[in-house]
Design brief:
2 strands, 62% helix, mainly alpha, elongated
């Protein structure tokens, strides 16, 4: 995984696991990779992976079964969708509209690009 400098690595790891839940890689009550497995997979320090899992557990996206590992909380996908939609509509979209206005781009430019990329 290529990490960026715009947010801490543990949050990027948590986002990736959420992406995997959204994509259907992990469903309700599915076991996810252990902290160590995920750390090795992403080539990060185990402590960083622990922070990512702790963040997801606090957000009720995953839960721990002592001795068995971490599992996806039932309803986690819907929770991730709701959270991300709210953030997109409340933060990213207004910023995108601001940038469009500054650059002189109209919605037709965005739609045209969207259609071109989805062919």
């Amino acid at each position: 995984m290529n990490f960026t400098n715009d947010k801490p690595i543990f949050l990027q790891m948590a986002d990736r696991l959420c992406d995997e839940i959204l994509a259907g890689t992990y469903k309700d009550d599915d076991r996810i990779p252990s902290v160590r497995e995920y750390a090795v997979l992403l080539e990060v320090n185990t402590n960083t992976a622990v922070k990512a899992y702790d963040e997801l557990a606090r957000a009720n996206i995953i839960y721990n079964k002592r001795g068995l590992g971490y599992f996806v909380t039932p309803g986690a996908r819907d929770e991730i969708l709701a959270t991300r939609r709210k953030e997109f509509l409340g933060v990213r979209l207004p910023e995108m509209f601001r940038q469009m206005q500054l650059l002189g781009l109209g919605i037709e430019d965005v739609v045209g690009t969207w259609q071109h990329q989805n062919r």
